[in-house]
Write a structure and sequence with these properties.
The protein is of the alpha/beta class and 510 residues long. The protein is built from 18 helices and 15 strands. It has one domain: Alpha-Beta Barrel (TIM Barrel), CATH 3.20.20. The strands form two sheets. Strands 1, 2, 3, 4, 5, 13, 14 and 15 form an eight-stranded mixed β-sheet that branches. β10, α7 and β11 form a beta-alpha-beta unit. α10 runs antiparallel to α13. It is globular. The N terminus is likely disordered. Bound molecules: zinc ion (ZN). The site of zinc ion (ZN) has 6 residues, from loops.
Length: 510
């Protein structure tokens, strides 16, 4: 049970995102774009291609030529790439987006039936904040049933070009009936989960239903019993789907042991802290770092370390405040997420969280995860960049840059971090969709940077513009679109505050 909360606190579907309306008339079209004299960093190899001309046509990279080649495609628009760097669009391999539809249907009385504004302004705002950070892909690791269903709709709207946003990969979370055991917010989780799978047949049925419904991948969660876990993992593979999730719980009657977990490997482990949870069997002994890294490497399992997530949780535990959000990003955090971050609603700032068994190992757990991530990297385990946003302190979009710096700090080179944030994520979530590299024929999800990210990884924040599905969005354009939703976000904030004040008034006097 040690530090169960820390592990379970990761990945509990939390908050909600925001929206910015884009006037339909102003929707950028795709057409033909030519970027002249740009440095291309494809990211699938160590190559850096200076002085290239890149042609983008109808959402795809149509050509990458040495300078001097005469490229004047009919109807082309031109971008001056001199002094600039073209990288693949970034992917957050671990988020929890709550759509406005899910918010309105929430059981939380502060949110239920809430007017979130016209024309999906809230959803649009959230999605634009990803694009502002150059994040053109995001894997959602599951939330409430309604939220997941709504995300499938949103994913398809984005794919059809009707809403601007990152390509979404939507997981179906499959969990056993013990979810309530480790929730940091027990009040929000039903005491028993009717229909939660408890047999192999249940597990198989759950995977098949998810596939039929159109989910992109499966997230097995840790409270499945052994036979169900095994069946979920195996059926996911049989169905040609990918699994990224938690390792089975240890140390209970129906739970697994380490040998079992690695005998039935996931494709990807959604947090390094999942391995840290196993490391707590040996009280986070350094020798266990090697043992765990070796088993992950031998099992050909990928890992999304989410180190920034642990760092922020640790910050809240010790400093008793939400960690600062970089730059001007706090202003973009939507009002519903802010509500979740506020001390009254933030489980990581609660006495209960602080006083739990094993809280004294949080800091060592973060160190363990960092060293473990380093060992995984040295063994060639494919790492991806995930954040668990919008966990308090982690804003959608910019948190990807923060996790990239975390990986840089454990030893990855800037190029390796870039690969983790791009190509590795495509290999994991989008095997049919291409490599995600800057190569001819690939989808034009690209970021144009004003400075070299290989000289200083922090330069990934110096964004000149983003291509999403072949649509060119200069950074200023994204800012302008976000500004358009300012007023509506402020009004949403006022409605929320009014609800909160009313709830305070109706509380019985202490
Ligand atoms: Zn998560």
């Amino acid at each position: 049970m040690k530090a169960l909360w820390l592990a379970a606190a990761l990945c509990v579907a939390g908050s909600v995102p925001v929206g910015a309306a884009e006037p339909a008339a102003a929707k950028p079209d795709r057409g033909v774009w030519v970027i002249r004299d740009v440095t291309v960093i494809p990211a699938d190899t160590d190559e850096v291609l200076a002085h290239r001309t890149v042609v983008i046509r109808e959402g795809r990279i149509a050509g990458i030529q040495a300078l001097g080649a005469l490229l004047h495609p009919a109807g082309a628009r031109y971008i001056d790439g001199r002094g600039k760097f073209l990288i693949p669009g970034l992917v957050d391999a671990h988020v929890h987006i709550a759509t406005e539809g899910a918010l309105r249907d929430s059981k939380n009385p502060l949110l239920a039936g809430l007017d979130t504004g016209a024309d999906h302004v809230y959803d649009r705002h959230v999605l634009l904040s990803f694009l502002k950070a150059g994040v053109t892909g995001a894997a959602n690791l599951g939330g409430g049933a309604h939220s997941d269903e709504d995300l499938l709709w949103l994913r398809d709207e984005i794919a059809a070009g009707r809403i601007l946003g990152p390509r979404l990969y939507v997981a179906k979370r499959i969990n056993g009936p013990r979810a309530e055991v480790a929730s940091p917010r027990p009040a929000e989780v039903p005491a028993s989960k009717p229909g939660a799978p408890t047999t192999a047949a249940d597990g198989i049925a759950a995977v098949r239903a998810a596939r039929e419904r159109g989910y992109d991948f499966i997230k097995p969660y840790q409270f499945l019993n052994r036979e169900t876990y095994q069946a979920v993992v195996e059926e996911t593979r049989r169905q040609g789907m990918v699994s990224s999730g938690h390792l089975p719980e240890l140390g209970c009657g129906v739970c697994a042991d380490r040998a079992f977990a690695f005998a039935h490997p996931l494709d990807n482990i959604a947090h390094s802290e999942e391995l840290g949870r196993y490391g707590r069997e040996s009280d986070l002994a350094p020798r266990d770092i090697d043992a765990l890294a070796e088993r992950v490497a031998r099992g050909k399992i990928g890992v999304t370390p989410t180190l920034i997530t642990l760092k922020q949780i640790l910050h809240m535990y010790v400093q008793r405040e939400v960690p600062p959000v970089p730059g001007d990003w706090l202003a973009l955090v939507d009002p519903v997420t802010r509500l979740d971050w506020a001390p009254a609603n933030n489980p990581y700032l609660s006495a209960k969280f602080r006083n739990q068994d094993g809280a004294d190992t949080f800091s060592a757990g973060y160190d363990f995860s960092r060293l473990l991530t380093r060992e995984l990297w040295k063994r060639g385990v494919p790492l991806t960049v995930g954040t668990d946003a919008p966990l308090p302190g982690l804003a959608f979009g910019v948190s990807v840059h923060q996790e990239m710096i975390e990986l840089r700090e454990v030893g990855l080179s800037p190029l390796e971090v870039l690969r983790a944030a791009t190509v590795n994520a495509h290999r994991l979530f989008d095997r049919q969709g291409g490599s995600g590299a800057v190569r001819v024929g690939e989808r034009a999800d690209l970021v144009l940077l004003d400075a070299d990210p290989l000289a200083d990884l922090r330069n990934v924040a110096r964004i000149d513009g983003v291509f999403v599905q072949g649509r060119w969005l200069p950074a200023a354009r994204i800012e302008a679109m976000l500004k358009e939703s300012d007023r509506e976000m402020r009004e949403l904030s006022q409605r929320l505050q009014a609800r909160q004040a009313a709830a305070e008034r109706s509380k019985p006097a202490p």
